[in-house]
């Protein structure tokens, strides 16, 4: 049986959502982050890098979100999660765009916030000023470009999904985690169509089941 090695508050939540949408049998092995918000050492027994998501499926062990999503859709979707012909290029692009272009910026913004929070109190004002300059001059202008790209694309989708079909596809499963994390950091950057997309995902019964089975998830706002 397919096993999802699920780290709380991680990219593996997107895999649980996909599996619930496909309504296939699977097991969850849960891993909890340390007090320092790192993955536990035991996850390295499955993936030497100690990152999630990871799945095992018989003799197959596979990590990396994009690879896992693609593998599951290819093997188990039975015609579901397929983009319409008119949306195939968009599905391909946004599937790879998420981790290739968007997530590095979101992660950098998250890390910079932690740098300020963890700085010794006597140098915190200086660190805060430095981080503020990095955000305003470098990171946030880039994020605003991405916000505009996503908002414009979704405004042209008659169904609200990235590939323009009647159901979510790999692009949607990939991008939801990035948008959830981003909305928690700076929600004012996101446009109305982007926020509606997040809400649409969160209102789906399959997504709600994925939260129930996966456990507490800091980025869910149901």
UniProtKB/TrEMBL annotation:
UniProt GO cellular component terms: cytoplasm
Catalytic activity, as annotated: RX + glutathione = an S-substituted glutathione + a halide anion + H(+)
GO MF term list: glutathione peroxidase activity; glutathione transferase activity
Keyword Transmembrane helix among UniProt keywords: no
Boundaries of every GST N-terminal domain copy: 1-80
UniProt keyword annotations, A-Z: Transferase
Entry keyword Transferase: yes
Protein name: glutathione transferase
One Pfam family matching this protein: GST_N
Protein's organism: Laetiporus sulphureus 93-53
InterPro entries reported in the protein's UniProt record: Glutathione-S-Trfase_C_sf, Glutathione_S-Trfase, Glutathione_S-Trfase_N, Thioredoxin-like_sf
């Amino acid at each position: 049986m397919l096993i999802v090695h699920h780290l709380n508050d991680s990219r593996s939540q997107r895999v649980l959502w996909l599996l619930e949408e496909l309504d296939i049998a699977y097991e969850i092995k849960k891993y909890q982050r340390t007090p320092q918000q790192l993955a536990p050492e035991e996850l390295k027994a499955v993936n030497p890098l100690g990152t999630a998501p990871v799945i095992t499926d018989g003799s197959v062990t596979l990590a990396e979100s994009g690879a896992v999503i693609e593998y599951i859709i290819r093997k188990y979707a039975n015609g579901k999660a397929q983009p319409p012909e008119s949306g195939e290029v968009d599905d391909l692009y946004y599937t790879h765009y998420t981790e290739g272009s968007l997530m590095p910026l979101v992660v950098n913004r998250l890390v910079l916030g932690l740098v300020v929070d963890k700085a010794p109190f006597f140098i915190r004002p200086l660190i805060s000023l430095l981080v503020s300059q990095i955000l305003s001059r470098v990171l946030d202008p880039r994020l605003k470009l991405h916000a505009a790209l996503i908002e414009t694309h979704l405004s042209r989708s008659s169904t609200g999904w990235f590939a323009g079909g009647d159901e979510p596809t790999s692009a949607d499963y990939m991008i939801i985690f990035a948008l959830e994390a981003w909305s928690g950091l700076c929600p004012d950057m996101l446009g109305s169509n982007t926020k509606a997309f997040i809400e649409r995902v969160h209102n789906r019964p399959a997504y709600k089941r994925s939260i129930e089975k996966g456990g507490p998830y800091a980025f869910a706002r149901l």
